[in-house]
Design brief:
Layout: H1 9-26, H2 42-57, H3 76-86, H4 92-95, H5 102-112, H6 115-126, E1 132-135, E2 151-155, E3 158-169, E4 176-182, E5 193-199, E6 205-211, E7 222-233, E8 237-238, H7 244-280, E9 282-283, E10 286-287, H8 292-322, H9 329-353, H10 355-358, H11 365-377, H12 382-394, H13 409-431
This protein binds flavin-adenine dinucleotide.
Residues 101, 134-137, 141-143, 167-169, 213, 222, 374, 377-381, 383-384, 387 line the site of flavin-adenine dinucleotide.
Length: 432
């Protein structure tokens, strides 16, 4: 029987080191540097590179990867425990070499890339010499990839890509983009598209504009891109022809759970601040912490965070156990659907309990509330994941054949009376 909620002492030591390192060395970077992914920024590199070296020395670099790719192959549970610390800081994932979307892009390059693709794109990505973008969503709709129209046509030895993509995060800093395009329009619905690796400098790749999310991003980092006669050699296809959906799923399963792990870090940060505030602020003669309506907010937040964390860690455990994202689809969908709600509700309570200060840019709550919407949209909106979850759940049930439900009490009572009739009669006779 193994049903254990404890962390091994040796790994706890690593977690303690990570916690202290992130609080003391990494979190301060959030306040002095610009974009964590800007590998061309000398100021960023001067501060980030030595920290990355320290992480490598400690053998904590790229912990989402197995030893074949230079990571320790910790598995998802350990990664979850780490990520809930890294989630506190904008810069921590990049300092530890496990930032999205590069982590997911590296995963599919490792899985589907040819030796040449791995050498040219994967290795520098793993070393954070470069960063990448995932270019899937289109302006006319993201939640339903079946409506995508960006196409790639084979002309001689090259693929020629035409179309527009929307919200390709970090494309302005990326060295290459992974682009999903229709290659086989007449094939079955889920076999029409393929993935391509497109070096950013390829002629015809134009960023029309960069959008910022919420109020905090002065310079946007989510690109609206036009691909106009973008020509890449045949060998730039990633994975099999018509296999874009399968390739995307390989990346999105891990990506979603990693977002959830980091979200725990953010939510706990909001919760810690909320607790500190209610103990520190007095109104109407007593601390906020002594008011029952405030206590309810603390209790609700704690329960929601703990429930969410347990679901995330159990899902991570299942991924480690089954090593097959398809077997954990239901759990990942649940985690993905729950994540924005827990994040939103706790951050909103923390904002509210800080009063006017909470609503300003001097505290992180407004940004966190907006980020909760990011978590509800990126990698597919909540509704779509709830649909997946419900469908998966319902597979384990059957419709009744009769007019009334199988648990209809009159029928159950009648069956029970029939089952025990003899024994009851014997008992009654014995007593009389
Ligand atoms: C911060 C951020 C970063 C992102 N980064 C990337 C990236 O790097 N690469 C990339 O390719 N994309 C990225 N995206 C895009 C993201 O994947 C899409 O926003 C998402 O898939 C939804 O697509 P959409 O925005 O076109 O919304 P739509 O598809 O128009 O959906 C809008 C709304 O309609 C509702 N809805 C949709 N489908 C259903 C349904 N079946 N049932 C009920 N209601 C439904 C939901 O409320 C949904 O939010 C990012 C998005 C954000 C916000």
């Amino acid at each position: 029987m193994s049903w254990d909620f404890e962390t091994e002492p040796e790994f706890q030591k690593e977690l303690d080191w990570i916690d202290q390192f992130v609080r003391e060395e990494v979190e301060p970077l959030d306040y002095v540097l610009g974009h964590p992914y800007d590998v061309r920024d000398p100021k960023r590199n001067a501060l980030v590179r030595p920290l990355q070296a320290e992480v490598r020395k400690r053998k904590l670099w790229a912990c989402h990867l197995g030893p074949d790719l230079g990571g320790p192959g910790y598995g998802q549970v350990k990664l979850g425990l780490m990520n809930e610390i890294l989630g506190r800081s904008r810069f921590a994932p990049i300092v530890f070499g496990c930032q999205a979307p590069d982590s997911g892009n590296a995963e599919i390059l490792a899985h589907y890339g040819t030796p040449e693709q791995k050498k040219r794109f994967l290795q520098p990505l793993l070393d954070n010499e470069i960063v990448s973008a995932f270019s899937m969503t289109e302006p006319q709709g993201g939640a339903d990839p079946k409506v995508f129209t960006t196409k790639a046509e084979l002309r001689g030895d090259n693929w020629v890509i035409n179309g527009e993509k929307w919200f390709s995060s970090n494309a302005h800093l990326a060295s290459f983009l992974i682009v999903m395009a229709v290659t086989d329009p007449d094939a079955k619905e889920y076999n029409r598209m393929s993935m391509f690796i497109v070096p950013k400098e390829t002629p015809g790749v134009t960023i029309l504009r960069n959008m910022g999310v919420g109020t905090h991003e002065a310079e946007g980092s989510h690109a609206y891109i036009r691909y106009e006669d973008v020509t890449v050699p045949k060998d730039h296809m990633l994975g099999p022809r018509g296999g874009a959906f399968v390739v995307a799923q390989t990346r999105l399963g891990g990506g979603r759970i990693h977002h959830a792990m980091r979200t725990i870090g953010q939510v706990r940060k909001a919760f810690d601040m909320m607790c500190e505030r209610v103990l520190s602020r007095t109104t109407q003669g007593s601390r906020l912490a002594d008011k029952q309506m405030v206590q309810e907010k603390i209790a609700d937040s704690w329960m929601e965070i703990e429930q969410f964390r347990l679901l995330v860690l159990r899902t991570a455990w299942k991924i480690d156990r089954y090593k097959d994202y398809l077997k954990v689809r239901k759990d990942i969908a649940a985690v993905k659907a729950l994540m924005p709600k827990v994040f939103h509700d706790v951050a909103a309570r923390a904002l509210h309990l800080h009063g006017s200060l909470g609503a300003t840019g001097e505290m992180p709550f407004v940004e966190q509330v907006i980020q909760s919407f990011h978590m509800g949209l990126a990698d597919g909106p909540t509704e779509v994941h709830k649909i997946t979850l419900a469908r998966q759940v319902l597979r384990d049930y059957k419709a009744t054949t009769g007019l009334f439900p199988s648990q209809h009490i009159p029928a159950l009572r009648e069956a029970a009376i029939k089952k025990y009739a003899d024994r009851i009669e014997r008992e009654v006779r014995a007593q009389s």
